[in-house]
Design goal:
Blueprint: H1 12-33, H2 58-67, H3 72-82, H4 86-90, E1 97-98, E2 103-106, E3 116-119, H5 122-133, H6 146-154, H7 156-170
Antiparallel strand pairs: 1-2, 2-3
Helix pairs in contact: 6-7
C-alpha cells in the first residue's frame, strides 16, 4: 500500500489565494475556451482572522528555562537559536547541518516552501554536537530529534499539545 495522505485544514489566507488564482486563470482563458461565465467568480472568500501573539517576557523565558524537560528542551533550544517554526525543528535532518560552514541549510521551509541558510552560533553548535553524540539508531535516525519527528509526522498537533501543556502546567504561562 502507498503512503496515506492526511487532509490538513487550510488557513483562510491559503483558501483566498487559491480562489483568487483560479478565478484569474478562468478570467484569462474564458474567451479562448468559450466560457461565458466564470464559475469561481462568486465563491465567497473566508474572513482573514489573525491571531495576536505576545512575545514571552524576560521572566517567562526564565521560568521556561528553569522548567525545561527532555521533550521541550530541544524545541526551545533550537527555536531560540534559529527562529525555526515547530514543524521545521521537528523535521530537521542531520543532512541539513553543514558542519564545515556552520550553517543549517534548509532546502524548503515546511510552511513557506522557501529555502534558508541559518548560521549556527557556538551555543547551538555545542547543543547539536551533544545531540549528535546521543544519536539514536532506528527508523527516524536521519532526524536531529527523532522522537519529535516521529510524533510530528504522525500527529502534528501532538507536539503543540505537549508544548502548550508544558507552558500551562509547569510554567503557568
Amino acid at each position: 500500500p502507498g503512503k496515506r495522505r492526511v487532509a490538513r485544514p487550510l488557513s483562510g489566507a491559503t483558501i483566498t489565494d487559491h480562489i483568487t488564482t483560479v478565478t484569474e486563470v478562468f478570467s484569462l482563458l474564458a474567451e479562448d475556451a468559450g466560457i461565458v461565465g466564470n464559475p469561481f467568480a462568486n465563491i465567497p472568500k473566508p474572513s482573514l482572522q489573525t491571531e495576536t501573539r505576545q512575545p514571552f517576557t524576560f521572566e517567562e523565558l526564565k521560568t521556561i528555562k528553569e522548567n525545561l524537560d527532555d521533550f521541550t528542551r530541544p524545541l526551545f533550544t533550537i527555536a531560540i537559536a534559529t527562529a525555526l517554526r515547530e514543524g521545521d525543528i521537528c523535521t530537521l535532518k542531520w543532512s541539513e547541518i553543514d558542519w564545515v560552514n556552520m550553517v543549517i541549510r534548509r532546502g524548503k521551509m515546511r510552511k513557506t516552501q522557501v529555502g534558508v541558510d541559518i548560521p549556527i552560533m557556538p551555543p547551538l553548535a555545542d547543543y547539536l554536537e551533544e545531540l549528535r553524540e546521543k544519536r539514536m539508531a532506528g527508523e527516524y535516525a536521519e532526524y536531529v530529534l527523532p522522537l519529535h519527528a516521529e510524533m510530528y509526522l504522525h500527529n502534528r498537533s501532538g507536539v503543540s499539545y505537549r508544548v502548550k501543556t508544558f507552558l500551562e502546567e509547569k510554567c503557568h504561562i
